[in-house]
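Project standup — Tuesday

K.O.: blocked on the structure for the chain from last sprint. Re-posting the sequence here as requested.
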Amino acid sequence: MEHIAADDRQPCTIDEAELGLARREFFFVYQPKLRMQESRLSGFESLLRWRHPSRGVLMPESFIGLVENSPLTGSFTDFVVEEAAQTLADWTVRGYNTLSLAINLPAREIGRPGLANKLSALLAARSVAASRLQIELTETTDPGSIDTLVSAVESIRQFGVSVAIDDFGSGCWSLTILSQLGVDTLKLDRKFMSGIQENARSKIVVEALVQLGQRLGKQVVIEGIETEAQFAWASTIEHIDCQGYYISAPIKDEQIDEFIARHGLSLAAPRGPAPAKTGHEVTLKL
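H.V.: unblocked you, prediction finished:
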């Protein structure tokens, strides 16, 4: 079990973050996403951690806001996409040649000139199919110019990488933006599940958002599945993915093989309504 520092919400400095990046103190853990009703693993989300030399393992809340509002954000983006491409290549060697991975990037960062070409080159150099990578854009991030964002999303998707809106319903993005962005996936914010058992209106809201996403042709992911009751209720909704600690806490890369074996996972054919959504799916027994 990783040690999470007790003071991980204390602010870090940009100099510390820059030095930590140079020293490769940042690493990733991976949380699975389960395709409900079919009981298949639809992929993993990559979550950033910082192994701080004096404060232990820090959660993103300690440094992401600082990094995203500094000149260091480009270096972090490069680190994230390079690590993702290498992870997918490593999974291929281990036999998971269609297993998909989602990474988190600020909405403003995907419009950076050359990012789409960099992604394409990184994946091609490792013989990794672009459809195995998804970029999650956090809705709480100011998207900047909508026209620029729409263009950037389209350029990313043109070579096969899919795009998701993360924490949908939690931030400053409007439904107008949703109608303009050609994203593949909506990830509903975890707050919608927190009162699902006590508040009938919460269920209505979740069902309405799922229907909205599906009517728009999006894959819908419900985050925050923390209890058996939440899992059972989500299992009644068709064609969705779910993610949360009831399914699995984030795990280290070296634990993925054991996770698959322990839960009786077996390979199955990829499934997805669009080429960019193709992913490695395996049967999961909870």
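K.O.: great, moving the ticket to review. The chain has a mean pLDDT of 86. Residues 73-93 form the longest helix (21 residues).
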